[in-house]
Amino acid sequence: MGKELIYSYIKEIALRLKDPRRFGAASVMIGAGFSKNAKSKGMLNVQPPNWSELADRMYCELYPESEQWDEKQKKEWECQRIIKTSGKNVTKLAEEYIADFDRNKINHLLEEAIADDLFFPGEIHKKLLRLCWADIFTTNYDTLLERTSDLIFRESNYKIVYSQNDLPGSIKPRIVKLHGSIPQIKPYVICDEDYRTYPIKYSAMVNTVQQAMLETRLCLIGFSGDDPNFQSWLGWLRDNMGEYCPKIYLIGIYENLSEPERKLLENKQITIVDISDLAD
């Protein structure tokens, strides 16, 4: 992808943020990758976990490694570790974890792994929230975005929507927590069954995102191409909007994305804004 094309996408988003009345508004959905920009209150170089890192903790508890294994068994364990903690397999792994333990156990694992109290928003969090987004959606359980809104000055402050019960009468701009919020808004959406029943249990949330897609340009930040959150939202939106599904911008560093993967996303109306090309 050429730099000129990337700059054209960035320019379109910038115009929407600067003058939404003239060019149309923009909304953003934030994934786990964006939390890597948080700052640790203690140890240096410590970051919040991404989706695969959370899954790795589940895997190691479900399938503990044994010192008595031979080399073949260790290699098989490592192979399964990679498979089960990648892409859509993560939600299935979470389903196994809940079945083997219980919902309270996975809640505790997520809260302990994310360690929300040990991090504070980084400068990129502040820069993101100072922009004039129509709405900010997030699948993250941490409270970094909410806490960022208390640190910045804006003409219109963000309204925090923790659950769909907060949606009626809410005024834009909003920070909408789609999958729960540490520590009080549970259950955290994490396993296959949660995703299967989400459009029914949380139909107001899905409708709100769909409305944002119709009325604004939706940008996704902090997601990988095979992120189960990203794939599930894309599937729900396409199921309901079909060929009328508007174009979505997937923004990030995707230099390792293969050509077939890029083509697949493009066929689903996803425009990849690969900013790795701008780092030269």
Physical arrangement of strands within the biggest beta sheet: 5-6-4-1-7-8-9
Cα distance, first to last residue? 13 Å
How helix-rich are the residues, as a percent range?
Answer: 40-55%
Describe the sheet with the most strands. 7 strands, parallel
Helix segment count? Answer: 12
Total number of strands: 9
Order of helices and strands: HHEEHHHHEHEHEEHHEHEHE
The proportion of residues in beta strands is: 5-15%
Shape: globular
Which structural class do the helices and strands define? alpha/beta
Radius of gyration: 19 Å
Uncertain stretches: none
| Average pLDDT over all residues | 90
Description:
By secondary structure, this protein is of the alpha/beta class. It is 46% helix and 13% strand. It has 12 helices and 9 strands. The chain has a 7-stranded parallel sheet. A two-stranded antiparallel ribbon has the order 2-3. Helix 3 (51-62) packs parallel to helix 5 (89-100) and helix 9 (192-201) packs across helix 10. The longest helix is centred in the N-terminal third of the chain and has 16 residues, at 3-18. The model has no long low-confidence stretch (mean pLDDT 90).
List strands and helices in order, with pairings.
Blueprint (H helix, E strand, L loop, with lengths): L2 H16 L1 H4 L1 E6 L8 E2 L10 H12 L8 H14 L4 H12 L2 H12 L4 E2 L2 H8 L5 E3 L5 H6 L9 E3 L12 E4 L14 H10 L1 H13 E6 L6 H14 L6 E5 L6 H9 L2 E5 L6
Parallel strand pairs: 1-4, 1-7, 4-6, 5-6, 7-8, 8-9
Antiparallel strand pairs: 2-3
